[in-house]
């Protein structure tokens, strides 16, 4: 009766992974799902998980003792990167140490495209930096691993960017410079994560998790305007000009600062989204979603239709 521990189920990737793991697991599997605060999970979802035999407990990457309590007896555990930029490697080390102390054999990690960049970490784009460091910690641990390098989520456009368009004069200001990228859905990334936790991947293998096609930001915006009732203009800007534009309007310079304007990202995060496309990190597609889940990856159109209320 193998035991699997799925942490971070309070987030979108972890929550999707939890539901999908219960759907595809063998009947003799045992699941422990953890989050820092189970009371924040919708009651309906919590009851559905429990009805299928999952145990839901509180645990935190910042509390090694809580991880050891839930990792005990597990065959495989996971690690989902958090929003704690600059602190995520410490959280990862806590999870790795807890897993090793409990005799866990395998760990699965949600990394990010570009984490394999051979450049020194401080010369890399902002977003992959912590992921590169964490991947190195996992490899050095001696644990068997699977790493998924997720491309940028197409969900980010309605969740983070659409709210700023009216603020910018009905414009999407971008620095992707016309380069296409294979945006992926959070839904697919969550399902891949569950599949890897359950051993569907090859040992000590990294999987790039992509959408089905590479598209430019302008193509995505034109589709949104044609199909979701949005009116506006797509404007590509030089990186430094875009940085200065947002800083002058009060965008946070740190991920830990609240934003006083309708843009939820800090300036480095926002600029890096465009940079990841412009530098070609997301140009290639992969078959990882189909290989690991048996399903074709969700198109950007399908995801955006589901999230249509965010464009209102």
TrEMBL record:
Q: Which residues cross the membrane?
A: none
Q: Which Pfam families match?
A: NAD_binding_10
Protein name (record)? NAD(P)-binding domain-containing protein
Lineage top rank: taxon: Eukaryota
Record domain NAD(P)-binding: where: 11-155
Give the originating organism.
Penicillium malachiteum
């Amino acid at each position: 009766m193998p035991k699997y521990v799925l942490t971070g189920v309070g987030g979108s990737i972890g929550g999707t992974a939890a539901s999908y793991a219960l759907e595809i697991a063998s009947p003799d599997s045992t699941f422990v799902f953890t989050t820092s605060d189970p009371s924040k999970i919708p009651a309906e979802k919590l009851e559905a998980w429990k009805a299928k035999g999952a145990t839901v407990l509180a645990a935190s990457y910042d509390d090694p003792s809580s991880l050891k309590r839930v990792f005990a007896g597990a065959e495989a555990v996971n690690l989902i990167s958090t929003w704690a930029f600059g602190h995520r490697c410490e959280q990862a080390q806590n999870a790795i140490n807890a897993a090793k102390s409990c005799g866990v054999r395998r760990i699965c990690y949600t990394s990010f495209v570009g984490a394999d960049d051979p450049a020194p970490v401080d010369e890399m784009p902002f977003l992959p930096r912590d992921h590169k460091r964490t991947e190195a910690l996992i490899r050095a641990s001696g644990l068997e691993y699977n790493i998924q390098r997720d491309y940028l989520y197409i969900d980010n456009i309605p969740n983070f960017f659409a709210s700023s368009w009216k603020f910018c004069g009905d414009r999407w200001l971008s620095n992707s410079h016309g380069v296409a990228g294979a945006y992926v859905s959070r839904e697919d990334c969550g399902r891949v994560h569950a599949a890897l936790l359950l051993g569907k991947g090859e040992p000590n293998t990294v999987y790039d998790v992509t959408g089905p096609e590479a598209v430019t930001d302008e193509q995505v915006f034109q589709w949104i305007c044609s199909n979701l009732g949005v009116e506006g203009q797509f404007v590509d800007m030089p990186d430094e000009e875009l940085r200065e534009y947002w800083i002058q309007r009060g965008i946070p310079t740190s991920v830990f600062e609240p934003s006083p304007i309708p843009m939820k990202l800090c300036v480095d995060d926002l600029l890096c989204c465009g940079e990841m496309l412009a530098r070609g990190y997301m140009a290639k597609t992969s078959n990882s979603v189909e290989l690991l889940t048996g399903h074709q990856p969700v198109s950007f159109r399908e995801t955006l239709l589901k999230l249509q209320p965010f464009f209102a």
